[in-house]
Predict the 3D structure of the following.
Amino acid sequence: MTITKLLASTAVGAAIAFGSVAAQAADLTVVSWGGAYTKSQVEAYHKPFIAKTGTNIRSEDYNGGIAEIKAQVEAGNVTWDIVDVELSDAIRACDEGLLETIDHSTLPAGADGTPATSDFLEGTLYDCAVANIVWSTIFAYDKSKMADGPKTMGDFFNLQKFPGKRGLRKGAKVNLEFALIADGVAASDVYDVLSTPAGVDRAFAKLDTIKSEVVWWEAGAQPPQMLADGEVAITTAYNGRIFNAVAGEGKPFEIVWDGQIWDLDLWVIPKGAQNKATAFEFLNFSTATEQLAAQASYISYGPARKSSGPLVGKYHNKDIDMGPQMPTNPANLTNAVQSNFEFWADNADQLNERFNAWLAK
Amino acid sequence: MTDATLSTTGAAAPLLAADGTPLKEKLARTTRRMKMRALLLTLPLVLFLILSFVLPIGQMLYRSFNNPTGSNVMPNFAQAIKNWDANQGIPSDDLVEIFVKDMASAKKNREVGKTIGNLATRVNYEIPGSRSLFTKTARRAGKITEGPYFEALVKIDKRWDNPNVWRTLQRVTNDFTLSFYLAATDRKYDSSGAIIMADELYQIYLPILWKTIWLSALITFLCFIIAYPVSYLLSTLPLATSNLLMILVLLPFWTSLLVRTSAWIAMLQKSGIINNVLVYLDIIADESRIQMIYNITGTVVAMVHILLPFLILPLYSVMKTIPPSFMRAARSMGASNTYAFTRVYFPQTIPGIAAGTLLVFILAIGYYITPALVGGSDGLLISNLIADHIKKTLNWSLGAALGTILLVVVLLFYWIYNKLVGVDNLKFG
């Protein structure tokens, strides 16, 4: 074991040696997903935090997953202080002992005085992670090219009525849920059906009907670009990316909320982070009522605190009400699914294998 | 006469050097010192190779069959279940007691690599969907204080009643395993412990490996078809023209890989340059633009372009050394153009072809950025799967097993190549 550890550290040693030279100047390294999303965090979290504490923040981008956290923790040289991750990754990293545990009682109370543990939405606080936003995978189309556009998940899979290429994220997650919803499964039953072999077959059979027309995307920035280029007619995407293309760049895209699958982004602190104390300070600061509400004026992701809801106003430089743009807006939740992290923690490996085999055929 | 006397005395009493030591010994010592010095000079390179090449590859090989998770997380249970006879189906309550106690203490452990989550992930590779069985049971294991332990486990989750779970646990807690190689070749253990093929719907690694091999072969062949005439031109044209041509070959070679790949996207996509020109010239209608990217065509086009210089350069440098007078001589002796080419010119270029095609093939078989960007759903090659397991699923052992298989395949091709062409015949210039 020690030999393996030694080897692991030499393997990542070089990369980290280069990284740490740059990291030394910063008092805190915050890692997030880049693009419009990181920008919203810089505006709502980083800038006020710098103003308040004088901390020197270094913002780094990554593409999700826990590979880097694992490598850093195993090599014993953790340069990332606080990381924005998806729920299934947070749970898995926590289970494998890669993260610091977080005491929920130290989180600040809501602006209205509600203690944090009841102010946060249900299922947003975990042993090693605190949620900041609710985001969603939806589908969108260009309404300048499609006047009478699709309305339901079924329409997304209807090539006769809405011809044209479809954009989907490469991977089993989300796509199997979408396929079942389109095939008539009620949103609340999706994971029950998907837990049976017949349900998985059914989802793949539904995906088969559009397979020849699908263009697969991997990074969140791709789908708005593919829509703009006309490479696809309809695409799944993260709702904030489409919203920013509409509000920020004036693109004529329309979001369809039917069958949306919402999920959480959470802050985690890798075990042994170099600036652990500052990381906790930043965690408490950024998940306070005002900061979460402020972020929502830069991107259409819903704050994880109930007390932030009433404070959500308009887009930061345009007269657009942010409320209706949120995944958590009641009108958008009529036929919605919360991504089931336990299902995916159990089945992701197997289903992705099948997905890859299906894709290669 | 004096000479003869000298040599006879030399044979009897050894020749001495100036300091009195025998000349033979002195010579040996000097040669040894010279050899040591030469060796010392190569030391930095040797160290570099060991650190950056031998160690990582050795570690990869080791990881592909090393399986420490079970005994790290549950040391007592791993020891106890070793001699258990799996045909009993369900283990004795003594064994289950050790299991429950180990689980309860593992639950408290937050040390990296020794948590219950590590074991849950490991078993989940063998029995998909069993991850929650372990995390859930671990949460409650501390509350089980007295027997019968087995019934207590079944009460938490009835899946513990399945003999296959225990048989798998015995396999998983073993320090060495073949599981990752089985998974990498689309095989698995069935419930009786025999090795069978995975369900057809889940077979992915072998088909992708074959696809990678034939795609690399196709790309190598296309590169050869294109590179041969270009190299010929380069080596025979007057210097000014051939220099210009050489720059045209080298310029893309010096450009970043990502830039070149994105350039192909801009060229080939539906709203791209080629389609636009075709539509503008009324050769195709606006609504029937050709799909040239995000499929096999896109992958082949982009990869042939990217790998072409690796074939042109060795070919060129070999062709440059063939005197033009050889061809003239052949023709003057009555050979037709074709005959002179096939019997005189072509055989002399074989070392360059051999070196270039081998280089291109080996590069192509391990490529993954370009196919991932321009290949669409057909762009999945074996290296993408390896990268996936290293970066996304974190199943490093399976990634290592796949990497080892790829290494063996490349060595195998090298061996066949050596039989056919002979490594001594390789010539890079």
